[in-house]
Amino acid sequence: MKLSTFTYPDTNQTVIPNTTIKNPDRTLVVMFGPSHLLDAPAPIQLVLAVYPGAPAIGCSSSGEIFPSLARQSSPCFPAACRVGSAHHGNPPFMAIYAIGDIQGCLDPFRRLLDRISFDPRTDRLWLAGDLVNRGPDSLTLLRFVRGLGDAAQIVLGNHDLFLLAAAGGIATIRHKDTIRDVLDANDRDELIAWLRRQPLHHHEGSFLMVHAGLLPQWTIDEAIGLAREVETVLAGPNYRLFLQSLFHGPSPQWNPSLTGSERLVSIARVFTRLRTCTPTGEMSGFSGPPDQAPAGYFPWFRIPNRKQTETTIICGHWAALGLHIESNLLAIDSGCVWGKELTAVRLHDRQVFQVPGIQRAYT
Predict the structure, then answer these.
(1) Model confidence at 359, in pLDDT bands (50, 70, 90)?
(2) Which of 28, 59, 69, 333 has most Cβ atoms within 10 angstroms of its Cβ?
């Protein structure tokens, strides 16, 4: 994206010429100047004439953002253009925050929302899966996230799929699982129905969010298509057959020739369990620190020539990896349920926010 400023008489504006951020086929128009000019019809008409279709934003010297200049932002600059103004009695800014594995840790989650001054009227949360299990408050956490409506976008993780299987009588709860409160709740059927209709992926602009990772040979388009195969079955009437295969059937390595339940199981394992693999995409069950991976296996995002490097992947699942940020990767499971941190990353500027996790792990 190219940041451009617009010359308007008497604005005292600051010029930012040709500053490349991302996506060079889009332009963000930034106008600086006195409030009485930026909050008038004339500037937006001039911007429309010179930069038709470009998102635009106005900012006064006092930091006010003017909705008369705000238009729908491009996904690769998702927050800066859909804004309000304290001057108009509206929230001053809209941002998207990606948050790592919460796992029923409601108190850290609430503290993190306070830390980022989350406003569900204007901000959005992208939750990278594993909303439940191992922490103490899975039921309240699910109710809270469901209640956020469109302000929260989630993808399913392995613990979320386990909850679905347990609710269907397919998986047996173990001593370390902390989802009994969900299964005993009066509204469990509504919560389970809502959860199984959540996706394995969320793709928006230059970002793709999944719980665990992608095989190196998958393109973004291929990965989205494969995710939708599983999402369709999970949301449909035969979802229990899929969960039965996932938790009690074979676990085949991915092969494009797979069909039926084995194909769906293989896809779901990649999206919700992948950490390390071989250069040809053979997964391991390893969950420790990356430098201790088995011989021949590497973090999935380290495989040479993987086919998704033009897209920024947001993922969780790997607490032993911890917070790990690269130009095209936001790995944000920082071990909240293991007494470490819960992490949020604001997408438009990649600012990191963290709060301490729970005091002890539920093991």
Answers:
(1) confident
(2) 333
Beta bridge partners of 353: 344
Contact (CB, 8 A) for 47 and 69: yes
Residue identified by tokens 């200049």 is 69
In terms of pTM, does the model score above 0.70? yes
CA-derived radius of gyration, the chain: 22
Cα 335 from chain centroid (whole Å): 17
Token duo for residue 235: 């949301």
Instruction: State the angle between helix axes of 188-195 and 138-147 in degrees (0 to 180), rounded to the nearest 10.
Output: 60
Comparing CA positions, the residue from 303, 255, 258 lying closest to residue 277 is 303
pLDDT 10s digits, 225-273? 999 999 999 999 999 999 999 999 999 999 999 999 999 999 999 999 9
Q: Write out the DSSP string of 145-187.
A: HHHTGGGEEE---HHHHHHHHHHTTSSPPPTT---HHHHTSTT
C-alpha to C-alpha distances, 288 to 98, 202, 269, 276, 322, nearest whole angstrom: 23, 26, 17, 10, 11
Owner of token pair 């969010």: 209
Q: What is the pLDDT of residue 55?
A: 55
Residue 251 contacts by C-beta under 8 Å, 6 or more apart in sequence? 265, 266, 269
Per the CB < 8 A criterion, the answer to whether 132 and 176 are in contact is: no
Instruction: Tell me if 93 sits within 8 A of 65, measured CB to CB.
Output: yes
Contact 234, 246 (CB under 8 A): no
* Structure token digits, residue 23: 């996506």
Encode pLDDT of 98-123 as tens digits. Answer: 999 999 999 999 999 999 999 998 99
